[in-house]
Amino acid sequence: MTSSQTPNRITAAAAAMVLLFAPGAMADNDRDTKQAWRLFIADHAQPLVRAIDFVDGTELARYDVKGHAALTASASGRTVFATQSEHDIVHVIRTGIDFSDHGDHRDLGVSDVGLLPLTFEGKRPFHVVPHDDHVILFYDRGGKADLIDEASLLEGRAVVKTINTTMPHHGVAVTMGRHVLVSVPDTAIETKPDELPPRVGLRVVDETGRQIGEVSTCTDLHGEATSARLVAFGCKEGILVARPGGIDGPELEMLAYPAEFPKGDTGTLLGGKAMQFFLGNYGEDRVVLVDADADVPFRLIELPTRRVDFLLDPATPRNAYILTEDGNLHVLDVIKGAIVRSARVTEPYSKDGHWRDPRPRLAVADGQVAITDPRHSLVRIIDADTLEETRTISVEGQPFSIVAVGGSGAVH
């Protein structure tokens, strides 16, 4: 389960990162360091979301919502969006975790969690894209996307800019500087009243909503991620990469899948934080690493069985975690381009059946992987280094979607 040799550019970036974050690199004895981590978990069977203290497993709060909720944390971690596509509503939870940057350190503020009084309503909200100080909600059947300012939201005000998405479709919108990248539906095809048209490309619009340049082809566009200054989208043809441009807006480039790859495509993408790269699925039993600036941008990794969930470790950027349907958790080293550790962490959860059946989901908190196990009403805590289960957190019902918010910071 290995791939070709890793490009030197990523290896060099990793070495620089190790030096930057070496222990004691910016020690300051005048400050105390504090950690705080919270889990937010949506139940699969009941319309509610729980906030749980990661350290001791106590339930901090529970919030009744309208229906099945998918959870997305904002880029700052100050809010979590609970998207209920089947009920046309999005609730927002204040996490009570607040970091403020001071150059050589971050200050950490901890307060109570809370359900914000503002909700967002529209026809079938689905993709939620956090970026910098805002979040974009895309309404599949609403023909629009809402760009929401997070700071105003936390003050009790909804400062929203609406983006026209041409017509209803299962799409996405992502900001890049002062421009927005928006999926394009096939307007020529005739669909039944309960169907949405396929996606055929991506367009760039400016602050006034005016399209810049031509539509870039991206058949069946699905999946997006941001890494450093790049944004990537999954397409049937390959990975469409957007780079910051000049006055004419972002520059779009299609990275075609290699001819020697087996038949497949990417529909889910994750973006590296401390290093510039993307990790995507390639079909159900493979993943692909994408370095948009490398001579050979794609590295394909075979999985033993089909993928249930995967994510990147923001604190250990070379680690990606992949849970497969046989109940094994795999650590993918993105520098080596290989799976370096595997261990059984749950009983098998088959991928057969409905795509949203209750299966485990992953989150990372304080060097540990939190895995929901809806069949046993548990969240299993796995040490990322040893892949051994260190403890469990009992969660009533069927814990499903999960996000972790937190970290360490200075307390003056």
TrEMBL record:
<dbReference type="InterPro" id="IPR011044">
    <property type="entry name" value="Quino_amine_DH_bsu"/>
</dbReference>
<keyword id="KW-0732">Signal</keyword>
<protein>
    <recommendedName>
        <fullName>YVTN family beta-propeller protein</fullName>
    </recommendedName>
</protein>
<feature type="signal peptide">
    <location>
        <begin position="1"/>
        <end position="27"/>
    </location>
</feature>
<dbReference type="InterPro" id="IPR047697">
    <property type="entry name" value="AztD-like"/>
</dbReference>
